[in-house]
Write a structure and sequence with these properties.
This protein has strands at about 5, 10-15, 20-25, 30-40, 45-50, 55-60, 65-70, 75-80, 90-100, 105-110, 115-120. The chain has about 120 residues and is an all-beta fold.
């Protein structure tokens, strides 16, 4: 029903910047949450940042002050501006899209295939 199209990953030197984009193709909902998760080599997938349709954001501590998440409600698109990248930011970044909040849970939960971000020393 929903297909996530990701772009922007790649190889960058430490201290550099990248901007990730994730567009959710499908019906536009008035209330949703989009976000980015990272799975580093040998590590579990962890939250990087999320944003709701209303603009509320949440960041992991290590990303605060360096990463900025934003969204375009009309296009169901989330962006992640990553500045001052560090080698520990390396990993596969997965876009996540949740919608149809029923008051208790998100009834729909979609994931992208992931995009590789590699930060070299």
């Amino acid at each position: 029903q929903v297909q996530l199209v990701e772009s922007g990953g790649g190889l960058v030197q430490a201290g550099g910047s990248l901007r990730l984009s994730c567009a959710a193709a499908g019906s536009i909902f008035s209330f949703y949450r989009m976000g980015w998760y990272r799975q580093a080599p040998g590590k579990q997938r962890e939250l990087v940042a999320t944003i709701t349709s209303g603009g509320s954001t949440n960041y992991a501590d290590s990303e605060k002050g360096r990463f900025t998440i934003s969204r375009d409600n009309a296009r169901n698109t989330a962006y992640l501006q990553m500045n001052n990248l560090k080698p520990e930011d390396t990993g596969v970044y997965y876009c996540n899209y949740k919608r149809n909040w029923d008051g208790s849970i998100w009834r729909e939960d979609y994931w992208g295939q992931g995009t590789q971000v590699t930060v070299s020393s």
